[in-house]
């Protein structure tokens, strides 16, 4: 990714947070990723680590319509994905997508059990949440023009606990310096 693109995304996300009265803590840890695929507008996500403790983590994420977070799971992390502003769609599988399509499994939506068919979409409105256990593959994208997404989870290890379906995906992008940085990313 170019630094100018990261700076642009930092400004867009900051403006969205301000517009919706989300106040970030001093010196939060920013992460802007295209997942190593080189197309941030299609496969991109902006994340801010609000809290990283040995037992738990809290993140705030920002995505624009047209951006998809690619299908992945976690070996150890249990997480709640919360639509804070806008509308969010998730596609969920109870195992590798090509091996589990159509299987039924139970997930927690808004703290209530719900039967879900592997590969189907789940739509969340502002304030709604889904709890994802380790091994549940998920992909997500905003269905509104932009979306603020919350995550509360067990301990976070983005380097070792993200298992993507696409083996070409890398968690952190390379950065081409074409202008001064407005913010430094957690990968730097």
**Which CATH class of one domain?**
Mainly Beta
CATH-defined superfamily of one domain: Jelly Rolls
Q: Overall mean pLDDT score?
A: 94
Total number of helical segments?
2
Beginning-to-end CA distance, first to last residue: 13 Å
Estimated helix fraction:
10-25%
- How would a textbook summarize the main sheet? 8 strands, antiparallel
- Supply the helix-strand structural class: mainly beta
- The quaternary state of the protein chains shown equals single chain
Shape: globular
What does the radius of gyration come to? 16 Å
Q: What is the third-level CATH name, the topology of one domain?
A: Jelly Rolls
CATH architecture of one domain: Sandwich
- Unreliable residue stretches: none
Strand content: 35-45%
How do the strands line up in the largest sheet? 1-2-3-12-5-10-7-8
Number of strands: 13
Order of helices and strands: HEEEEEEHEEEEEEE
List the helices and strands and how they pair.
Elements: H1 3-19, E1 29-33, E2 45-52, E3 56-64, E4 69-74, E5 79-85, E6 87-93, H2 97-100, E7 104-109, E8 112-117, E9 121-125, E10 129-132, E11 137-142, E12 146-154, E13 162-164
Antiparallel strand pairs: 1-2, 2-3, 3-12, 4-11, 4-13, 5-10, 5-12, 6-9, 6-11, 7-8, 7-10
Notes on the protein architecture:
- It is built from 2 helices and 13 strands.
- The chain has a domain at 47-164: Jelly Rolls.
- The strands form 2 sheets. It has an 8-stranded antiparallel β-sheet.
- The longest helix is centred in the first third of the chain and has 17 residues, at 3-19.
- The protein starts with a helix and ends in a 24-residue tail after the last strand.
- With 188 residues, it is mainly β.
- GO terms for molecular function: D-lyxose ketol-isomerase activity; metal ion binding.
């Amino acid at each position: 990714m170019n630094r100018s693109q990261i700076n642009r995304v930092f400004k867009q996300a900051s403006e969205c947070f301000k517009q919706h009265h989300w106040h970030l803590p001093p010196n939060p840890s920013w992460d802007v990723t295209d997942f190593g695929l080189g197309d941030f507008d299609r496969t991109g996500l902006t994340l801010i680590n609000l809290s990283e403790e040995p037992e738990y983590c809290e993140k705030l994420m920002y995505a624009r319509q047209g951006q998809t977070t690619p299908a992945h799971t976690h070996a150890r992390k249990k997480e709640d994905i919360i639509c804070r502003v806008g509308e969010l769609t998730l596609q969920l599988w109870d195992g590798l997508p090509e091996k589990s399509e159509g299987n039924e499994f139970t997930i927690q939506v808004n703290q209530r059990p719900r039967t879900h068919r592997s590969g189907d979409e789940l739509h969340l409105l502002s304030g709604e949440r889904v709890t994802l256990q380790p091994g549940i593959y998920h992909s997500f994208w905003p269905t509104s023009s932009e979306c603020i997404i919350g995550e509360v989870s067990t301990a976070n290890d983005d380097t070792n606990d993200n298992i993507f379906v696409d083996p070409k995906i890398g968690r952190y992008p390379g950065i081409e310096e074409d202008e001064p940085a407005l913010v430094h990313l957690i990968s730097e």
